[in-house]
Amino acid sequence: MKTENELKEDVRSRYAAIALQGKAENAASCCGATTPSNKVYNIMMDDYSTTEGYVESADLGLGCGLPTQFAKIKEGDTVIDLGSGAGNDCFVARHETGVTGKVIGIDFTPEMIKKARENAEKLGFNNVEFREGDIDQMPVSDNVADVIVSNCVLNLVPDKKKVIGEIFRTLKPGGHFSISDIVLVGSLPEGLKNDAEMYAGCVAGAIQKDAYLNYIKEAGFENIIIQKEKVITIPNDILENYLNEKEIKDFVNGNTGIFSITVYGEKPGGMPKINLVELATASTEKACCEPGSGCC
């Protein structure tokens, strides 16, 4: 069994190479294939092409959802994107925050940071910055973000509980997150679970769905909901790289499920939501005193 640091280095090395590839190769890489396969395209990715703020050159095809679509980002918000890659989700978030907001992308692969910064400079986005660092130890102060998003990244980090704790730390009281990631129901075959390529490719590092949601609850988040869920099916031409014929048959016909889920949660402690009807009534009652009555 590899150590946490060894697993991180596997991922860093893999994603350094991906930063230099085209989108077609990366679509295959997301599930661990070493060469492009037509069956691999879009088995995890969601289509960003109609999303406002989308930047094609920043889309490496590595996501498993559209967290920014569900993130309720408002103008002027400060947004953090975990595992920001070439910057696509940051640029979509920036479209929502406008020029008065701020977007911070965090990635631990220098090649990705370089690519993202180049993209931001070409676009002239002065309120989008990219910081190199681990998402389980973010280079960000406490209580900074209104919103945190992430797209298929937590499964790449060995200590998911620590990352979720960092999300709680860096959100402002009342802030929230919307994160897309891969989770499991049932056990993966050993051939998939122990392969470094499959770990770096989204699947082997995923944890049980119930455990994932429990980590979020235990961290202190409230109003936790699953905003979207879809089944992930790994094509046989990829499985053949890791499993024999019998193992593939057992896996396909077994009880193991691989899912992409987009989860939302709120950090408690923000300003309470005000009922505008009650506020208007209260204001009217306070203003109804007649001059000289002595009640005001």
Describe the structure.
The radius of gyration is 22 Å and the shape is globular. Helix 6 (160-170) links the parallel strand 4 (145-151) and strand 5 (171-185). Residues 28-42 and 273-296 have low confidence and may be disordered. Helix content is 35%, strand content 20%. The protein has one domain (4-286): Vaccinia Virus protein VP39 (Rossmann fold, 3-Layer(aba) Sandwich), CATH 3.40.50. It has helices at 4-18, 23-29, 67-70, 88-97, 110-123, 160-170, 190-193, 196-200, 209-218, 236-239, 245-253, 276-286; strands at residues 78-82, 102-107, 128-132, 145-151, 171-185, 207-208, 222-231, 257-266. The chain has twelve helices and eight strands. With 296 residues, the protein is an alpha/beta fold.
Gross CATH architecture: 3-Layer(aba) Sandwich
Number of helices: 12
Uncertain segments are 28-42, 273-296
Q: How far apart lie the N and C ends?
A: 73 Å
